[in-house]
Amino acid sequence: MGCKLIAPPGSPTPTPGPPPSGPSTFNTAKDSVITVFADSNSGTVHLVAANLNGVAVLLDANFKATFKVSSGGNILSMTFVGSDPDEIFRIAEDCGDGSSSVLRTWRLKAVVPGGPTTQITINAA
Amino acid sequence: MQPNFVRTVQFACLGMLLTAPLFGQGAAPVQTDPLASFDIPTNINSSDFPNVLTNFAVNGRQQFIDYMASTMNSQAAFNATFRNLLQSAENGRVDEQAGASATSGGTASAAEKAGISGLVTAALESGALTQTLDQNLFTVRGNAEGLFRFLSGQDVIPMCFNPTDTSCDPSPLNNLEFTASFDVSKSNTQTVSGQDTSSGTTLAALLTSDKRQFSSASARFAIINSRDLRSKSYRDAWSAWFSQNYKALMQAGSDLLAAEDQIFLKIQTEDANGRAVQPGDSQSVYQVWLRNANSALLAVAPRTAGGVRAVLKQQLDLLIAQMRSLHPDLDDRVVAARSAYSRYYANTSAGFELGNQPMLTLEGSYEKPSLQPDLVNAKLVFAWSPKKMGTVNSGTLTVNGGVSIYTSPQPKDTIGNTSRWHDAQFAIQFDRPIDSKALSTLTIGGYFQYQISPGLVNIPAGAVSPPGTTITLPPNGAQILSQRGTIAVVQASVTLQLPNSGIRVPIGISWSNRTELLTGNEIRGHIGFSFDTHSILLLGKGK
């Protein structure tokens, strides 16, 4: 299947340690079906809610959000829970065939940058 | 100054400290700086500056909502926000021991706490609880795993990208701590009386303590350390809790997003004239504001926290004014977001409470008390938070039980009998943050020591008879038996903390019925200073 979300050239690269880092804007082809999830070393961080342009996205049993993007801008907002507010976790795309791609890192601790919610923007063309 | 007056003041201070808990648990204080959670001093040095501060829709949704709430004068509704509580989690631990033990010559706590340091903690404390001679003790504590990682060039708080990488998991060394204390005070002089162990003669001597000497060393192992958020036991407990509560968490998370989108989506999907644009369009209210705000922040020169803060506040206020014109009901939306946030927090905080389980630590120490025979001490330390809590400890009860033995048999009477047993100890202490961010903590403790054998004093070189007496002292190296008895100490202290710095200053007062070598009441003051490197690492300011 392959990864569908591509960070624009010049975007910051996500790094493992604090503070959270990485791009917040991605490009993709219109009508792409994307799957996003939370990945962590502790195994305790989960995506528990996602909205695409204000509309709730259903999560599967593995707490992954799968959605189809419309042409133009798409704002995906997400809520996470986890066992450790300081843990730096990964917001990742499930690229299928068992592979995934780290979109950016994040933490639950509500000090900028961080918090229980965040958003990414997906431009589809 | 009259001694009675001094004693009255001392008792008044003790009484105030003891009754402070009755007044210290009121409503959480209002956040004084509504931009505190933007962490401007750190973020002005970010490679993502100024976007890290301005692009709040990505980097700090709740922080911006908090700020909006502060502008609508309904701060009271936000006192219990997630931000406050999570910030406090870092500062709020009251279970970590920083200084020396209660039996040392300089300490700030009646009981030893059960928590293990994260890397290295240093403490300087003055004022003994049970020892006759006051000392200034410098104590260094080091976590075995943290030190190993630090010395071998690894990250002290490791983070891995690969979920199958187990190198980030804490090892059993994470529960092991080493401690060393050194007396850094000038020599201290004290009149001590007792019986000559060889002749039984009652005598008194003016003794001068050693100075700048090794005082004690110990190893501590946390047998149960479920308060460590990185521990496997806590993560397992949290995962089990999550599997039972995920539906409620998903609902709370969904409600939170819906409420936030009511605030954030409109400014990202409309231009200044109210026309619909693509989400994230460059002409949206948010993107136009973002460009202007970034330009304004980049123009701040020199780039100081104060300068950036003033401009950021100005820019945020401009946007909020624009949002109010777009959303006449903005305040209602903010209140709704707050309500959703409270429900989210109420759900998630139950999971964090799992981190506040009882702790049990075993300690073995070698002590070298001034002018007394060397001791080996074994102690069990138990800590328990008796009240249901969030991430801030509303109170931790610590109980110690231990025994001390001499490293070699010592005289226990004047007829030649010897014993290795020195004493048995029991201590109980309660630590409670006074404010919601645990910037100050009240501690009340009691310490009881049953002296199995009488205290012993080694006559040092230079010992003289007390002024006005003509007692002939035994030769250097001889020993005096002090009067046997139970030592009881009550202590109250307040520990002040500089937030996010790792710096704590305990100030306290204690009363004891006697000391190791002397009978008679003692009231003493205690003050200390400790620095915990782990707090700095959590902020990302070190490796």
Topology overview:
The complex is a heterodimer of chains A (125) and B (543).
Chain A (H helix, E strand, L loop, with lengths): L24 E4 L4 E7 L6 E7 L2 E2 L8 E4 L3 E10 L7 E8 L2 E8 L10 E8 L1
Chain B lengths: L2 H17 L20 H4 L7 H4 L1 H4 L1 H11 L10 H10 L28 E7 L9 E8 H8 L24 E8 L5 E8 L5 E7 L5 E12 L6 H38 L15 H14 L6 H22 L3 H23 L6 E9 L7 E10 L11 E16 L6 E16 L6 E12 L4 E3 L20 E3 L4 E13 L4 E12 L4 E14 H6 L5
Antiparallel strand pairs in B: 1-2, 1-16, 2-3, 3-6, 4-5, 4-13, 6-7, 7-8, 8-9, 9-10, 10-11, 11-14, 12-13, 14-15, 15-16
Helix pairs in contact in B: 5-11, 8-11, 9-10
Question: What key attributes describe this structure?
Answer:
heterodimer, A: 125 residues, mainly beta, four-stranded antiparallel beta sheet, 46% strand, globular, B: 543 residues, alpha+beta, Porin, 2 domains, twelve-stranded antiparallel beta barrel, 29% strand, elongated, disordered C terminus
Walk me through this protein's architecture.
- The complex is a heterodimer of chains A (125) and B (543).
- Chain A is mainly β and 125 residues long.
- Chain A has one domain.
- Chain A is 0% helix and 46% strand.
- Chain A is built from no helices and nine strands.
- Chain A is globular and about 35 Å long.
- The relative contact order of chain A is 0.31.
- The mean pLDDT of chain A is 94.
- By secondary structure, chain B is an alpha+beta fold.
- Chain B has two domains: 159 residues, no CATH class; 316 residues, Porin, CATH 2.40.160.
- Chain B starts with a helix and ends in a 5-residue tail after the last helix.
- The C terminus of chain B is likely disordered.
- The chains are: A mainly beta (125), B alpha+beta (543).
- Chains A and B meet through strand 3, strand 6 and strand 9 of A and helix 4, helix 5, helix 6, helix 8 and helix 11 of B.
